[in-house]
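User: Can you predict the 3D structure of Ubiquinone biosynthesis O-methyltransferase? Sequence below.
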Amino acid sequence: MAQTQANVDAGEIAKFDEMAHRWWDPQGEYRPLHEINPLRLDYIESRVGALEGLQVLDVGCGGGLLSEGLARRGAHVTGIDLGENALDVARMHLFESGLEVDYQLRSAEDMAVAKPGQFDVVTCMEMLEHVPDPGSVLTACAQLLKPGGHLVVATLNRTPKAFALAIVGAEYVLRWLPRGTHEYARFIRPSEMEAWMRAADLRMRDLMGLHYDPLARRYHLGPGVDVNYLAHAVRD
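Assistant: Sure. Here are the predicted structure tokens for Ubiquinone biosynthesis O-methyltransferase:
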């Protein structure tokens, strides 16, 4: 378990475990995730193709919001996280949804040792900005993929605009997220993301921005990655 201990922030795990019981409340702290989840799923399918029958690993699955969405679209899904409370919530919600997801208390690094080259698709959404070494997670994700497999990640760009909107706006003004949810220094520039991917033998294929329209009160995908963005890469 040495790799797990080396790349986990106990404070971050505790912070999200404290809110775990509210994962499936669409009007609670995780409301933004509920609202963007269909967009994330559509983006994954637009890059990967139909998910039916594919082996998919959701890294940092939390309470299972994306994992269940992937399973609903026909994928065979494994979800891993280091938050025990979040995983308990994810497992309990399967009784309500009737879906099948294999949830495990594991880090990406440990999973890569146990099941290298086993997955067609690996997703890692809104998680890289919460670990000490994002490059280590991306390397593990690459190792978990079959040759030609797909990695889809989502994170926040380290720009003044992202600080203003994602921290000042979302956490302090609008109070969509609890204060302290994000740490600006851990936001990831696309150039940094691409360098880590390249070092892990991943080839970045696409970058897509995730935007919020305050007038329409809805999110949409489009050009521009100066705040939230998704990235798609393929294992060479």
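Residues 10-156+188-235 form a domain with the Rossmann fold fold (CATH 3.40.50.150). The chain has a mean pLDDT of 90.
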